[in-house]
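Handout, section B. The chain below has 172 residues.
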Amino acid sequence: MPVLTAPFRLSTRSGLVLDVRPVDEADEPVLAALFDRVSAEDRRFRFLHASEHVGHAELDPLVHPDHFRTESWLATDAATGEAVATALLACDNALDTAEVAVSIGADHRGKGVGWALLDLLAEQARKRGVRRVISIEDRANHAAIELEREKGFVPEAFDGDPTLVILAKHFR
């Protein structure tokens, strides 16, 4: 799979078919509506602060990626066109380490969306030559930590904040 810059079809383990494509500026209201459907706890885990609504300040970096070091994808249900999830890949300047983040609408949790998008993010990081992929998680986010561990991520300490943990996957 080349670096994904065009729409792509992805199937989850539950059989849900997703259309995945890079986000663009026009998607800001779609992402805002999607984050309104993400549980309050999952929004807090994603942005590491409580918020009833994700606003322009948080969405702006998602809709203005550089399409190589940073990329933000939108996953929609192929059958309905409904926005289901968003996935972010953010590489450091050296393309050594990339941080990943996935958010899923509450009505689509448990359908394999996180599994499929985490695989996509890891593969896209590897295609860019990244050596290590990380996810920074609140230690209370047991579901994400378990998913990432099942996908080969290993927990590491987060220096300076005992409430957070880094989950890392190495490619070389």
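Note. Strands lie at 8-11, 17-22, 70-77, 83-91, 97-104, 132-138, 154-157, 164-170. Compare this with the example in section A.
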